[in-house]
Specification:
Layout (H helix, E strand, L loop, with lengths): L4 E11 L4 H8 L9 E12 L4 E5 L6 H8 L7 E6 L3 E5 L10 H11 L4 H15 L14 H13 L5 E5 L7 H16 L3 E5 L3 H7 L2 E6 L2 E7 H17 L2 H15 L17 H34 L3 H18 L8 E10 L3 E5 L7 E6 L3 E8 L2 E6 L2 E6 L3 E3 L20 H11 L6 H7 L5 E4 L5 E5 L4 E5 L5 E6 L8 H5 L4 E2 L5 E5 L3 E6 L4 E6 L2
Parallel strand pairs: 3-7, 3-8, 5-6, 6-7
Antiparallel strand pairs: 1-2, 1-4, 8-9, 10-13, 10-16, 11-12, 13-14, 14-15, 17-18, 18-19, 19-20, 20-24, 21-22, 22-23, 23-24
Helix pairs in contact: 3-4, 4-5
Pfam families: ABC_tran (PF00005)
InterPro entries: AAA+_ATPase, ABC_transporter-like_ATP-bd, ABC_transporter-like_CS, ABC_transpr_TagH-like, Bact_Polysacc_Export_ATP-bd, P-loop_NTPase
Protein name: ABC transporter domain-containing protein
């Protein structure tokens, strides 16, 4: 069977510049500059057959998104051979959407770009609108959409253009559980129709449940390509090993691998499609290159001289000098004005810091309150770097960085227990169902059923807690005396936090606190305390 996708020694190299002007200077430089380049992917080779679903995993910066753009033919490779027997379609958050156009206009534009006729677009447009399910926002500019709404629209368009190859790049990391299930159902239909799917995600649980094979990208290269279970097992082992390193070792490991990505291509002999040139053609290219460089320099010189002549003619020299003197004098005499930023906000916000002080006035002369992570406030206006907020009949000022403006149109993103497995102790992964079956039990019932009690405490609010230290669980009882909160302890930060953080409805500025929503629980992840708190929704 001939593969539907075949990549052989594919590389993508980007030139690195310190500033934009360096790009221009390089055009007119006589000396050959030292090649400062970066291989986002290097010597990638693999095949995918019709009907296969390939998962692509890897830590941040491993080249997953670059590979997805290559597969979707959004960018060409620098070298190597790529063959695709079918029409690809990329689904990423806002990929290919024009922010200035409405959702309806984007549907028409993207369908036209996929080669569909006007009559064909009219046949599918209602199905696209129904699938996206964004209501009246379909007629609003995309720049007003939340990331979840953009993902909904992008996915809906792509699956209705009937692609042969579907590339899904983290597009399902936003949006609610209902839409996620709808997308999985659609992709299952595609699998049954024999379409090839590339599924890029940080979530190993999503990859494991959906993909036939997994491609593990690591600092621009293929670390492993094999059956899903085998690759996921090895990937998790790597993450565990990496997290066992201290900070200096982690930094050194990353620097060594990034340095390899900035070195020259070791072996380009196997590159075909994008690299082959005959000696005769190379010779011609060098001659033309020298001629074009001379022509560019001559043109630039003529333009500079012409501009100077126009500027200095008709007594403009004295006028220019006088103008500069006037401006210089005005700068010296003019007092510096303090820029005042003041504007109405009138929007709901949430506290995104562990603690946020509220002050009586915009001079912060007196503290009148303190807010905690996830507390809701109404933001009335911005005054420089402060927000004027209102909560519990209190009005005051707090630092702008303390508050995240809530997107009311953003759909709830529901997490699952399995999403937290990369962070939690093994006891949670294997026994969470048993421990959570105690929700609703009273104090005496829990003590009687469970063995291994290590401590009994009371919170500042007077709520009782039972600690089961060997199992890394704490039960908290509400005012009625029943369990409504379960805390798992000894949580460890891993590379998989990138996937989990995408599900967070709120995260602190320093990325130590996260707030999630599950079907039946509110979830608070605290890396400072190394805990995850699950509170039953009332």
């Amino acid at each position: 069977m001939e593969p539907i996708v075949k990549l052989q020694n594919i590389s993508k190299k980007y030139s690195l510049y310190r500033k934009n002007s360096d790009k221009l200077m390089e055009l007119f430089s006589f000396k050959k500059k030292k090649d400062r380049s970066f291989f986002a992917v290097r010597n990638i080779s693999f095949e995918a057959n019709k009907g296969e679903t390939i998962g692509i995993i890897g830590i941040n910066g491993s080249g997953k998104s670059t590979l997805s753009n290559l597969l979707a033919q959004v960018v060409p490779p620098t070298s190597g051979e790529m063959r695709m027997n079918g029409e690809p379609s990329l689904i990423a958050i806002s990929a290919g959407l024009n922010n200035q156009l409405s959702g309806m206009e984007n549907i028409q534009l993207k369908c036209l770009m996929h080669g569909m006729k006007k009559s064909e677009i009219e046949e599918v447009i209602s199905a696209i609108i129904d699938f996206a399910d964004i209501g009246s926002f379909i007629n609003q500019p995309v720049k007003n959409y939340s990331s979840g709404m953009k993902s909904r629209l992008g996915f809906a368009i792509s699956v209705h253009t009937n692609p042969d190859i579907l590339i899904v790049d983290e597009a399902l990391s936003v949006g609610d559980q209902t839409f996620y299930d709808k997308c999985l159902k659609k992709m299952d239909e595609f699998k049954q129709q024999g379409k090839t799917i590339f599924f890029i995600s940080h979530s190993t649980s999503q990859i494991q449940s959906f993909c036939d094979k997994v491609l593990w990208m690591h600092f621009g290269e293929v670390r492993e390509f094999n059956e899903t279970r085998e690759v996921i097992k090895n990937y998790k082992s790597f993450i565990k090993w990496f997290n066992a390193l201290d900070d200096k070792e982690k930094k050194r490991y990353k620097e060594e691998n990034l340095h390899k990505q900035q070195t020259k291509q070791p072996d380009m002999s196997s590159s075909r499609m994008y690299t082959q040139k005959s000696k005769r053609k190379m010779s011609k290219t060098k001659k033309w290159g020298s001629f074009l460089t001379s022509l560019q320099i001559a043109t630039l010189f003529i333009l500079v001289v012409s501009a100077a002549s126009l500027m200095l003619s008709n007594g403009n020299v004295q006028a220019l000098v006088n103008d500069l003197l006037v401006k210089q004098g005005s700068k010296e005499e003019a007092p510096k004005k303090k820029i005042l930023i003041q504007k109405e906000i009138n929007h709901i916000g949430q506290v995104q810091e562990a603690s946020a002080f509220v002050y009586k006035d915009n001079k912060k002369s007196e503290k009148i309150g303190e807010l905690k992570f996830t507390d809701s406030v109404f933001v009335e206006e911005q005054y420089n770097n402060l927000f004027k907020v209102k909560y519990d009949e209190v009005t005051g000022y707090t630092e702008k960085k303390n508050i995240a403006i809530t997107d009311n149109e953003k759909p709830n993103q529901l997490a699952a227990f399995s999403d937290f497995f990369p962070l939690t102790p093994e006891t949670f992964d294997t026994s969470y169902e048993f421990f959570f079956s105690q929700i609703g039990s009273n104090y005496d019932e829990v003590k009687e059923k469970l063995r291994g009690l290590t401590e009994e405490t009371t919170t500042k609010d007077g709520l009782k807690q039972l600690h089961y230290g060997y199992d890394n669980f704490i039960y908290r009882f509400n005012e009625s005396g029943t369990v409504d909160t379960i805390i798992t302890t000894n949580v460890e930060e891993t590379q998989d936090i990138n996937a989990i953080s995408e599900l967070a409805l709120l995260k602190s500025n320093n990325q130590s606190l996260f707030y999630f929503l599950m079907k039946d629980y509110e979830v608070y992840l605290d890396f400072n305390e190394k805990t995850i708190t699950f509170k039953k929704l009332s």
